[in-house]
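[step 3/7] fold_predict: job queued, chain A
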Amino acid sequence: MYESALQVFSPILAMMVNVFTQVMIFRRKIISSLLYTIFLGFFSGLVTVIVTNIINLTYVKSSLFNFSGIMFANIIIYGSLSYCYFHFINLGETARRIRLLREIIDSKNGLTPFELLELYNANKVLSYRIERLLRNKQIVLQNDKYLIGNPSVLWLANIITLLKFMVLGKKSEFD
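[step 4/7] structure written:
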């Protein structure tokens, strides 16, 4: 009974570990980069899902094939939950609509359309994004040209593009 419950709830337990780890690391300012706290949370949850499945294997006598299938399914479920969590965080951090609403809420008397356009003109938005990419060392400036620095986000983007192609049959929803 408990063994099968552990199999079923393993991805949920791992997701709870993911969220707890990410939030604690970020709030305690152990690491200042939100993206790295998300990665650390993800990997702590991944270890949890693997360890709980291995622990479950010691209690449930099943074939290696059955165990491998359950492990694979739980990792896929956990990865899917983590993907949703990543976008939940990302929505609050980078979505322009959310940020516009925050700006309006934070202003005492509201903002005029001109003030909003001043806050979010294309040059400023691009400048902020480039600054963030430079600060996180995802791009570097060499000889007045931007080059890929740390390719981790690029790898993630390529994986998401591959998954979109597998699900949607195209690289982007705009194709």
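[step 5/7] annotate
The chain has a mean pLDDT of 85.
The helical segments are 2-27, 34-59, 64-94, 96-106, 113-119, 122-135, 152-168.
exit 0
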